[in-house]
Amino acid sequence: MCEPPLQGRLAGTRARRLDTIPKTKPKEAEMAHKDKKKKNKAKSDEAKLANGKVQANGKGYLNGSGKANGKDHPPTVAHAHGMEIPTMRIGKDCDYEKELSRLQIELVKLHEWVRHEKLKVVVLFEGRDAAGKGGAIKRMTETLNPRICKVVALGTPTEREKTQWYFQRYVPHLPAAGEMVLFDRSWYNRAGVERVMGFCTEAQYQEFMLTCPEFERMLVRSGIILIKYWFSVSDAEQERRFQDRMTDPTKRWKISPMDLESRKHWADYSRAKDDMFNHTDHKQAPWFVVNAEDKKAARLNVIRHFLSKIPYKDLTPEPMDLPPLVKAEYVRPPFQEQHHIPVVYR
């Protein structure tokens, strides 16, 4: 039996497909089109948020103004798991100091849980100069026990350390059971400043990119909870913060000769960061990008995210009765025999 020509068969297939399309009324078609546009916009917004491109007035709102349907209320942002969570505007929907205090109480609960459960936690803070890493670390640790939560900020490697296995000088600072370690810059110096400023060879750089993911997987397999943050800031905001440091005597120490030299290499650092993400953003230890245009918002956001990454229970001890002070016979030495500092302020 002869088959119909190919062109005729295709035409018949198209006709059958058209017959299967349900007929819709013009109004229903218009509604369906609008719904589709809304869904596409939501996906676009979520993609922008994931890529760190959402930026409205420096506050990170998807809708900028925080108004919907003419009503002034906190906007929402897409959560990583598809949920929508409210975005609180500092100074309007929440007070910065009160919210920071609330989150710090939760940090105390978390670090007590880490101690009790003998967990091992490592948090890396990376990002541009003046991106706010130090300020975030300070707020995270100021209410915690320094014996449990330690901060590591290593300086320039010594001549001896330069001859060691690259990761060797970081290993002694890794946590034991019941400890948290926060690295203010870490082994990623090789992918950033060392790469851009020529402090390592091309072979050393390539070896780092190859072995770093395996090194981190090894840490995770050993039981370490590894969390990596990248603080992202625009060139305009970084410039404003540098100018502030130049005029403020209490902050001028933060500027090093290397910081001044790095100002010539903004694009080089950007490319180095992109390459670093491409090689080291893996499932066992992904990078989490922090929008650091607003310092206060960045601090609250990173603390809140960190708390969400480690399930914990409240082990706060129950209130106790303070026993009475036992006073015994005691004669204090003469006041004049002790060395006292001058009382300048009263």
Annotate the secondary structure layout.
Elements: H1 6-20, H2 26-50, E1 67-68, E2 71-72, E3 76-78, E4 84-86, H3 96-117, E5 120-127, H4 133-141, E6 149-152, H5 159-162, E7 179-184, H6 193-197, H7 202-221, E8 224-232, H8 235-247, H9 257-262, H10 266-280, E9 287-291, H11 295-309
Parallel strand pairs: 5-7, 5-8, 6-7, 8-9
Antiparallel strand pairs: 1-2, 3-4
Overview of this protein structure:
This protein is an alpha/beta fold. Helix content is 43%, strand content 12%. The protein is built from eleven helices and nine strands. The chain has helices at 6-20, 26-50, 96-117, 133-141, 159-162, 193-197, 202-221, 235-247, 257-262, 266-280, 295-309; strands at residues 67-68, 71-72, 76-78, 84-86, 120-127, 149-152, 179-184, 224-232, 287-291. The protein has a five-stranded parallel beta sheet with strand order 6-7-5-8-9, with helices on both faces. Helix 5 links the parallel strand 6 (149-152) and strand 7 (179-184). The longest helix has 25 residues, at 26-50. It starts with 5 loop residues before the first helix and ends in a 37-residue tail after the last helix. 18% of the residues are buried.
The helix-strand sequence is HHEEEEHEHEHEHHEHHHEH
How many separate helices? 11
Low-pLDDT ranges: 1-25, 42-74
First and last CA, distance? 111 Å
Strand order of the largest sheet: 6-7-5-8-9
Strand content: 5-15%
What overall form do the CA principal axes indicate?
globular
Quaternary structure type: single chain
Give the helix/strand class. Answer: alpha/beta
Nearest-integer average pLDDT: 83
